[in-house]
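Example for tutorial group B:
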């Protein structure tokens, strides 16, 4: 059996998204900037896509910029906010320790350029509370960036409360909603979000296309100079096919959100029930505020990479954390940030299911994973020490 259980890393392109992009890869190949009909058709497709994306977020089409993905949207949001702040002499940025590297590495760069960054530590439940943000605010704070849902442990942050807090004080609020868009309701008006990033390939559109929502009146700095595309905020001939696919996929995901979430959560809950029976295992992040499809576990005495390799041999695609970290020996910065001990964090497994998975696949995971964990433990010197009592169990 082949089971794809890594939907937080990327998703399969849906039929709907593929159908939406096909015309622009075949007959409708015009450049949206061209003045003849073929070009206008492409430009109109982008306009329609912008309207669709805006509707899904409760935004205005003029507030949507298409980008090459979530990383670019994150970079552009942070750089713009930092520039706005710097012009007013405000050079303090607040974010969190468990953001995606698109955020963390941009902040590191901004720090080198003279900004001051406070990275909040999430609580052990995987949540950043509004009062944590409030305590970190300073006179010179110009931006708060807190992710909507964490990509490794799936916890959902109190975005609305944080949004209200920031709006009250006139501080820009950005959220990386790449894991939430298409999977959870988002209302930028109600949640008082100033900037929001999303990425197509996390909800069944192709890789390499994303969007940034920027509330009306907020200055946006372009990262790429050139032509006047995206109202001068993102030069380069538009990825028409990708943009059309992103909009179609987002619309479809939003239309079926409730039933998909129900189906996905039922599979995830079955996984949790079965896998938490494995001795000396734990679930990372509270399930009280959570995306439907992701579960992150640690198994003591297990090397996460060895486990993934065994699972791959059994046809199972999973992750030990974020895709960007795979292959590196350090345990996940997300797990360390919520206080998982270093040795335990080494034995992590992230399973992320979606509406394309089936209960039969879940049963297969429940049959294979406990066996694979036992096999890895059998070869592990750490596990031998835990068994003999030479080393103390941490979970
Ligand atoms: C995947 C992801 C990104 C990066 O998006 P790309 O489109 O792959 O650049 C950013 N943030 C989060 C939370 C993600 O899960």
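The residue assignment follows.
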């Amino acid at each position: 059996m082949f089971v794809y259980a890594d939907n937080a890393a990327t998703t399969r392109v849906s039929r709907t998204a593929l159908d939406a992009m096909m015309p622009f890869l075949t007959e409708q190949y015009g450049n949206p900037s061209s003045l003849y009909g073929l070009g206008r058709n492409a430009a109109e497709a982008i306009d329609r896509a912008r309207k669709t994306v805006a509707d899904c977020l409760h935004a205005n089409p003029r507030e949507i910029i298409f980008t090459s993905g979530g990383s670019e949207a994150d970079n552009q949001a942070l750089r713009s906010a930092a520039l706005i702040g710097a012009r007013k002499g405000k050079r303090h940025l607040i974010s969190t320790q468990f953001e995606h590297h698109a955020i963390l590495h941009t902040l590191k760069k901004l720090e080198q350029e003279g900004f001051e960054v406070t990275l909040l530590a999430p609580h052990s439940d995987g949540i950043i509370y509004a009062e944590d943000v409030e305590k970190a605010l300073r006179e010179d704070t110009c931006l708060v960036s807190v992710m909507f849902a964490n990509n490794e442990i799936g916890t959902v942050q109190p975005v609305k409360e944080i949004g209200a807090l920031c709006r009250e004080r006139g501080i820009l609020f950005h959220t990386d909603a790449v894991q939430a868009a298409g999977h959870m309701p988002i209302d930028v008006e109600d949640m008082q979000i100033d900037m929001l990033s999303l990425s197509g390939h996390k909800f069944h559109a192709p890789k390499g296309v994303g969007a940034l929502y920027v509330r009306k009146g907020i200055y946006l700095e372009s990262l790429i100079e050139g032509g006047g595309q995206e109202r001068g905020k993102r030069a380069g001939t538009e990825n028409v096919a990708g943009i059309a696919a992103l909009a179609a996929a987002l619309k479809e995901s939003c239309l079926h959100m409730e039933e998909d979430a129900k189906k996905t959560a039922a599979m995830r809950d079955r996984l949790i029930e079965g896998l938490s029976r494995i001795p000396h295992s734990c679930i990372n992040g509270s399930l009280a505020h959570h995306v439907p499809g992701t579960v992150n576990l640690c198994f003591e005495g297990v090397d996460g990479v060895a486990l993934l390799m065994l699972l791959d041999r059994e046809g199972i695609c999973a992750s030990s954390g974020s895709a960007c970290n795979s292959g590196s020996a350090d345990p996940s910065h997300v797990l360390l940030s919520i206080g998982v001990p270093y040795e335990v964090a080494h034995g992590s497994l992230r399973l992320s299911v979606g509406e394309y998975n089936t209960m039969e696949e879940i049963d297969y995971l429940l049959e294979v994973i406990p066996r694979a964990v036992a096999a890895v433990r059998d070869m592990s010197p750490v596990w031998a020490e835990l068994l003999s009592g030479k080393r103390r169990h941490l979970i």
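The chain has a mean pLDDT of 96. Compare this with the pattern of hydrophobic and polar residues in the output above.
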